[in-house]
Every structure is written in structure tokens, then in C-alpha cells.
Amino acid sequence: MSQIKQAGKVIEEGGEVQIVFPHAFSLNVIQEAVEACQDGQCSCHDSEAWDKIKDIEVRDHNGEVRIHVKGENLSRDIVEACFNDCDQEVLAPEND
Q: Is 10 exposed, middle or buried, given 0-12, 13-18 or 19+ CB atoms closer than 10 A?
């Protein structure tokens, strides 16, 4: 197990902030972590950045899992601050 924040990278693409994960992570694993986070089981809810986030979607981009973060006046810095406070654990993929 590793913390989700160690696996993802925050980017800004097409005016939208996204968190990108390596191909080795499955959509289901990331989706479960996001759902737990949205249910309040995460310390990122204590950050003021969380208040600016309106919607979070987990999508597959050609085998790469991305979390699309939407909100009013969201910047990469705001999402990164919130993501850095996240303490969700994910099953680390095994290296073959």
C-alpha cells in the first residue's frame, strides 16, 4: 500500500486540472480511493482548497487513469494543495 498522493501527478490540460496516474494503476483502485475521499474519510477535507472543488470524475485515458477535478476558480496549485493533504491508501501495482 502507498499513499495516493505519491502515485499521482497534478497537471493542467485544456483549462482543466487533472491528476494523472501511471498505467499500472487500475481505474477501480483509484475510483475507490476517490469515493472514500468524497465520503469524508480523508484529511484533505480540512484544507480550504477542498471547499473550491465542486466535482471529481475518474476516467480512463487510453489505459492511463486520470482524476478530473472541477470547480470555480480552480488552479493547479489549489488542487495540488488539496491532493498533498490526501491520506488515502492505494494498492501499489506490482512490478513484473
A: buried
